Amino acid sequence: MAMPPTRRDRWLALGLLLVALVLAYLLLVHPWFTRPLLDINQGITEVQDRQLRVDAQLQQRDAVNKRLQQVQAALAGRPGFLREATAESAAAALSSRLQDAVASASPGNRSCTISNRSPLTDNSPDAAFPRVALQVRLRCGVPEMAAVLHTLETGSPRLFVGNLNLLAQRFQQSPNESGLGLDVSFELVGYLQPGLTPDVAAAAAVPPSVPAPEPSGLEPAGLQPTADGPGAAMGAPADPAAADAAASEPVQEAPHEN
User: Fold this and answer.
1) pTM for this entry
2) Rounded CA Rg of the chain
3) String of b and e for 47-73 (b: at least 16 CB within 10 Å)?
4) Best CA proximity match to 97, nearest among 219, 214, 211, 251
5) What is the DSSP string of 130-149?
6) Taking a C-beta distance cutoff of 8 angstroms, is the pair 151, 143 a contact?
7) pLDDT in tens, 164-216
8) InterPro entries of this UniProt entry (predicted)?
């Protein structure tokens, strides 16, 4: 005669049934139905969030376009790249701009003169922005040198001064003169716009404007020319005939005392 199930047996059977249902759900229902539906819901939520971000950006389209036009207009008025299409023409433009800066800082080359300027070879031809550089050597007074550097680095297009070396010189014509000057060498660097063709460069070329520095009103006394001293290359001769003769002769470098 079979024993009637006790209360404990009923609870045990109910527990086994629950375990079987949970195992069936984990093995059959969750991986095949629940998990794919959860992934779909997550994808729908991500798409909705992306759509909200896109809508917010589209609402700012007019403001962004207006700001972009303002920035483009500002860059067009102050270009950063050189206007020339080739390195040779850009080097000639750099030399002309250097000459204008020196002339504006010291009219007639009375207190500042160019001793040497030569183009440098670009050692990184595969760079994103082609580099054009000049090796420059000047003999100037302190205020004139500061004016030249300020004019070069604040003009348009943008130029950069690198490897700056300053060497003080002392030469006097009378005991009352300080006789202070600078022998300066540096690299003047500019960059070409990538992909610029000669036709586009010729159409967009305009004469560069070099801002003139404020006149100091004083010429350094130490930069007056002497008969045979180191400052003779920087001074202006007394009569015009001697000035023309001095302008046609190459500048002789003065020996420096160690």
Assistant:
1) 0.47
2) 38
3) eeeeeeeeeeeeeeeeeeeeeeeeeee
4) 211
5) -EEEEEEEEEE-HHHHHHHH
6) no
7) 898 887 655 445 445 567 888 999 988 887 766 555 455 555 444 444 444 44
8) T2SSM_b (IPR034756)
Name the residue with tokens 């943008």.
Answer: 158
| Helix 142-154 × helix 87-105 angle, to 10° | 140
CB under 8 Å to 81, separation ≥6 — which residues?
129, 157, 158, 190, 191, 192, 193, 196
The amino acid occupying position 54 is V
In degrees and rounded to multiples of 5, residue 86 shows phi and psi of: -120, 155
Q: How many CA atoms, within 13 angstroms, populate the side-chain half-sphere of residue 215? A: 7
| Strand partners for 170 | 180
Tens of pLDDT, residues 42-94: 999 999 999 999 999 999 999 999 999 998 887 776 677 888 888 888 889 88
H or E, element range at 188: strand 180-191
- Establish whether the linkage from the previous residue to 240 is cis, with ω within 30° of 0: no
Tally of CB atoms within 10 A around 148: 26
